[in-house]
UniProtKB/TrEMBL annotation:
UniProt entry tagged with the keyword Ribosomal protein: no
Catalyses which reaction(s): (6S)-5,6,7,8-tetrahydrofolyl-(gamma-L-Glu)(n) + (n-1) H2O = (6S)-5,6,7,8-tetrahydrofolate + (n-1) L-glutamate
Name of the coding gene: zgc:171566
Organism: Scleropages formosus (Asian bonytongue)
Name of the protein described by the UniProt record: folate gamma-glutamyl hydrolase
GO process terms (BP): tetrahydrofolylpolyglutamate metabolic process
Keywords for the protein's UniProt record, in alphabetical order: Hydrolase, Membrane, Secreted, Signal, Transmembrane, Transmembrane helix
Amino acid sequence: MSHKPGRVNNLLTCFSASSSIKRKRCVAKTLNVRRMFFFFLGFSYIAASYVKYLEAAGARVVPIRINRTYEEYVKIFNSINGLLLPGGDVDLQKSEFSRVSKIFYDLAIKANDALDYFPIWGTCQGFQQLTVLTSGKNLLTLTDTKAVALPLAFVPAAQNSRLFKNFPKDLLQSLSEENITSNFHSWSLSVQNYSRNAKLKRFYKVLSTNTDGRREFISTMEAYRYPFYAVQWHPEKSPFEWIDKPGMTHTPSAIKASFYTAIFFVSEAMKNQHQFPNISEEEKALIYNFAPVYKGLGSIFVQNYYFD
């Protein structure tokens, strides 16, 4: 998806409060598990739809800012419970987005290897960034998928995948038969390029594919050994974006799919005990410290958060 020049996405993560913080803040309400996500949308803005997407599943959002030091990112990583890499239009190998994504990707690999469960979710550009981080190459190819809603062509592995195995049968049927996944990308990972790259084949299990009529590309995948998930489509758009373009869909099934993906990822993020050092630092990090700006229905995004 294209964005306005001069703007870069920021990063997004998910946080679930530790028991010590819950005792201080949720004395009588044991169900109020506090969760937080950071999202990396680019240089100095974040589309509010990603924030709403995570909040709708019970998460709280913290923007990961770019141009920070490695030590600052390590501190953030140890304070959060998951990472969402959102859509955008930046260089996947030379941008600040890619640099910071790699830092968190490497930290997540190390943490999971040490049995510290840390999930990553990539949407659109986030999907593409994960393929570059894993393979060390940009293997994307042009596809005619700039603004189109498609059904998912599930592969047999999807049925027992972590991501889809608990989806209701009627929702899986809708996802496979109805045009309810919004695609706004010019570049895709073709099935052919995936199959030819040993690193990608070893790392990711393909869950669904799509085609633009000429090239078959991967639309959903999850890692074998790590809680990493990637969708080339946009589950956050159906409930929260209202641009007047082909590819946008607001059917009940599309909205249900959005919430099921968000709830799944937030539940994954609840599996670790990362936390901020104290309540004060936590509150300063929250997206609540920033106000979304209404851009109008003619904009790419209805609302954005802007940063310096």
